[in-house]
Write a structure and sequence with these properties.
The chain is α+β, with helices and mostly antiparallel strands. Helices cover 44% and strands 20% of the residues. Strands 1-3-2 form a three-stranded antiparallel β-sheet. Residues 18-28 have low confidence and may be disordered.
Length: 99
């Protein structure tokens, strides 16, 4: 019973330490990366409407690390509230940090 308890304690400490290390890295990277969010318009359930935006306006370095386009709860509620006539999408731009 002593051996099992020691192994379990070691495994728990290892997992806990890895979790803290990963959470620290993620929060540090997220704090360093500038993030911009925009809504882009489309109409009639997304059939009509196009949107263009320039990443260089959002990112100081002019380089985006990732761009995500899609619905959020807020945009879905707006779409439902307008019966699909106005269907916005959210664009989230994560900028690359240049060192």
């Amino acid at each position: 019973m002593g051996y099992r308890a020691a192994v379990m304690r070691s495994a728990l400490l290892a997992v806990w330490g890895c979790t803290l290390a990963l959470a620290g890295c993620a929060s540090t990277n997220a704090a360093l990366r500038p993030t911009q969010a925009h809504w882009v318009s489309s109409y009639v359930l997304g059939v009509w409407g196009t949107a263009e935006f320039d990443v260089r306006e959002d990112c100081p370095s002019g380089i985006a690390e990732s761009v995500r386009v899609g619905p959020t709860w807020a945009t879905v509620l707006v779409s439902v509230g307008t019966l699909g006539l106005y269907t916005p999408r959210e664009v989230i731009v994560h900028c690359r940090v240049v060192r």
